[in-house]
Amino acid sequence: MSASGVKQVPDTETQIRIAPDGQSIVKDDIKWVMNPYDEFGVEEALRIKEKFGGEVTIVSLGPKRVTESIRTALAMGADKGVLINDPSAEDSDALATARALAAVIKDMEYDLIFTGQRGVDDDMGLVGASVAEILGIPQLSVITKVEVSEDGTSVKVERPVEGQTLTIESPLPALITAQKGLNEPRYASLPGIMKAKKKPLEEKTLADLGLDASQFGKEARKLKVLELTPPPQRQAGKIIDGETPEEKAAELARVLHEEAKVI
Amino acid sequence: MDIFLSEKNRVVRQSVRRFCEKEIKPIAAEIDRECSFPWEVVEKMGRLGYFGIQAPRELGGAGLDSVSYVIVIEEISKGCAGLGLCVSVHNSVALYPILAFGTREQKQKWVPPLARGQKIGAFCLTEPNAGSDASGIEATAIRKGDHYVLNGNKVFVTNGGVADTCLIFARTDPGAGSKGISVVIAERGTPGFVVGDLEDLCGVRANPVSSIRLYDCRVPLENLLGKEGMGLRIGLTALDTGRLGIAAQGVGIAQAAFEEATKYAKQRKQFGVPISRHQAMGMMIADMATQVDAARLLVLRAAVLRDQGKPFSRQSAMAKLYASETSTSVTDMAVQIHGGYGYSKAYPVERYYRDARVTRIYEGTSEIHRMVIARSVLE
Description:
Chain A has six helices and twelve strands. Chain A is an alpha/beta fold. In chain A, α3 crosses α4 (about 125-135). Chain B has ten helices and ten strands. Chain B has helices at about 5-35, 40-45, 65-80, 80-100, 105-115, 230-265, 280-305, 315-340, 350-355, 365-379; strands at about 120-125, 140-145, 145-155, 165-170, 180-185, 195-200, 210-220, 225, 270, 275. At the A-B interface, α2 and α5 of A face α1 of B.
């Protein structure tokens, strides 16, 4: 059995605008997609299920629209979904999010939990680690290869480290955060989408999970966003002038050293 | 726009879009240039159910609704109009008539391999002397013992170069005028079934459009679809659905052109500012955005009516007319916004401009559709 945490994030092609409060983004008109790192996690969970049997459950926290991403994962082959949909959980920080996800997962029988190594929206990379901490299980972060032992009691994983590979072994259950390169996620097929319609997708509130709503939402954030600023506008390119290749190369070296300060 | 879609429809759009962006968009310029049919991608599309969008699941299809169907065609066409055409024609005018008019045995035999994309379908109506006027068909299917003997020359057959299962419109009763036309299924590989050279077309070049010639091609009597003489009725029913697909194709091409033009207008600088800040460009972009949305809404309306089992002939004619006119005008504006670069193969709008033009011609010309609409308004 494995659980896969899924977050819905703005499509990377969406043009992000900062809201007037300077601390959040304008959420209208955004195309929401499943966080790409979570997709790697879902795919890996499905591959393990295909090899060992069992079930894959998708767990997510967010508003109603997130059911679309959960359905996509169900269409890829996952078995059921749980969405924690509670207005008081809106704008929760990573720790509160992890508490909610862990509250769903703790009552399940599970061997592996997958999350993306980070969300491509705010790049915190905290939820996976926090879920593992709350559940008291090993966490294996930024993983590009997963091998479950034949007897299904342990897992061997690989993490890229500065051009080297770190191989780690851990007993199960464990939590793995997926890195790019782990796999090539499958596309949801049209018959799969039809089948997904009939798969169970439960919605739960914080109260359903026995959680205290005052620990969630914007007010309860331990981590506060002070300010969002747009990236600087890209400057025009520069063409290096010179009579000879040697002159141009010397000028290029000078510019890279003195102006761009990269060499 | 998404407010009109069910969650299932939205998941379909997102999944197909992801596939098209990763698998189709990167090769679209090349398969247009080389006139090549990308088998590898087509096989993947088959496994994902794109060739049996509305076919029932027990026959290997996905069992989806018409709204999903137009979404799939729009998304594929946004990546490559030639492949959008392939999928549209296969689903609507090749597979669907077998579902609608076939016997149980015929469905069991022909539908599963078509729905899974293991076989590609084609619709062979047009001849050198028959197009908008289908009653001019000269091909013949003459009964001899337990076979029909087919003879004829079919031209501009979409998917012709790769099609396995072809619906041939031919006269079973040469003396009976338009009532003597029937549909007989012929398979590639049957002796006398000859695929002609690929057409060297202006657009939709990834689609192997070709002629198909039949020389004393013998097919069993059980390959007759419906009854003898039902050909025109089958053809018209198929085209009602077919033109919905072509309308969606037009929307997809227009959407692609609109996105490229908007992106370019923000990047390209003249007189010290991005050209998007010049009012003339803004006017064009406003027209493009409005036309694309209006076309998509017309297509969705026709698809919803079809899903509800209501008459949709007039609405699908309107959708086809407006979406194809939109795709030519929007791609034209996209070229204009790109200036000289829009006329160059270095930018994709040049391809969109070529691809769009044929949507006003095939599966009923704009003029024929205006006639259909006028008649339904005035009757």
